[in-house]
Amino acid sequence: MEIIVKESRKTVKQKMSDILLDVSWAKLSERYFGKSRSWLYHKMDGFNNGKPDDFNEVEKATLRNALLDLSRRINKCAESI
Predict the structure, then answer these.
(1) Residues 25-33: contacts with CB under 8 Å, at least 24 apart
(2) Domain coordinates of the chain in residue numbers?
(3) Which pTM was predicted?
(4) pLDDT tens series, the chain, 81 aa
(5) Cβ atoms within 10 Å of 49's Cβ, excluding its own
(6) What residues pair up with 75 in beta bridges, in sequence order?
(7) Which of 13, 38, 52, 56 could make an SS bond with 44 (beta carbons 3.0 to 4.6 A apart)?
C-alpha cells in the first residue's frame, strides 16, 4: 500500500505575516515590479481568479531584493535619528 503525504505549502503571504500590516504593498508593487497592488496580492495569495498563480523565480528574487532594500532604507533612517 502506497501512502502519499501531502506537503504543507505556505504561501508567500503566510511567510510574511510578521510584516504584512507594516508595509505599503501598493508602493512596493509599483516601485519594484511596476505592477498594481492587486497583482502583488494575488501573487502573495498564490491564486488569481481561482487559478494557481505563484511567483516565478525572477519575481521571487525581485521581491527578496525589494525587502532587503527596504530594510536597508529603514536602518539608514533609524540610524540617522
Answers:
(1) 28/66, 28/70, 31/66, 32/62, 32/63, 32/65, 32/66, 32/69, 33/59, 33/62, 33/66
(2) 23-80
(3) 0.76
(4) 555 545 567 888 888 888 878 888 999 999 999 999 999 999 998 888 888 888 999 999 999 999 999 999 999 999 988
(5) 6
(6) none
(7) 13
